Amino acid sequence: MSVSVIIKWGGHEYFISTLSEEDTVLDLKQSIKTLTGVLPERQKLLGLKVKGKPAEDDIKLGSLKLKPNTKIMMMGSREESLVCIFCSSLIPLSSSQIHSVTDIVVEENLAKIARRVKEYRVEELNPPRDGKRLLVLDVDYTLFDHKSCAETGQELMRPYLHEFLTSAYEDYDIVIWSATSMKWIDAKMKELGVTDNPNYKITFMLDSAAMITVHTPKRGVVEIRPFMKAHLNREKDRELFKLSQYLKEIAKLEDFSGLNHKHWERYLSKKQNQ
Description:
Layout: E1 2-9, E2 12-20, H1 25-36, E3 44-46, E4 49-50, E5 53-54, E6 70-75, H2 81-87, H3 95-119, E7 133-138, H4 161-169, E8 172-177, H5 182-191, E9 202-206, H6 230-233, H7 239-250, H8 264-272
Parallel strand pairs: 1-6, 7-8, 8-9
Antiparallel strand pairs: 1-2, 3-6, 4-5
Helix pairs in contact: 2-3, 4-7, 7-8
């Protein structure tokens, strides 16, 4: 049976209908590469998950139960294709040439960041505190179920939200981010009682205009199970409770560079069993 999806990227939509249920996520990424030029390893397909975790490349598309013409948002950039061109050349590259290509990509990313820093205005809600690390939290499906229907936002708030933010604030300055408008973010944070909560403070908030895609290792990102279908899952969702324990554990460390946040639950279990 064929699989048809629509990939949203860079303000455009790309229709893919050449895959079958026996094809894998990697096959899908290869098809996306053909259309967009973004390498598979640079692609992040939002919403493509298995048991709350991002679908691995070897997962068959049939197991994802995708509806016809499912729309999938992709994050990623073409910049690494420059490295690919050099690396796939029949002419051997010296180490200095390879470093030169890598330096070009890094410089382009830094230039992109510099432009965004210059153009984007951050409204500081509360001053950063000395000695505190920065914790950036996505809104959708992390703090709030933004698709389910309810009479009030409180009904869609993730369990342990305020307890989580209160605990995190002891060790981290908190930033709220969402790939939408600042008007929406501000309204939701006020509705959830986050903006003026007496137990913690938000340093600043970022909207979609602050987004920038660069290739970095995933060690700085903690992925948790999305909070969806709030009315069904509210009583059993403990993700923020567990995450608060993890953040408390790693706050004891001087250096985060040795952490792999992909395995945060394994790390927490190991520490709790010591």
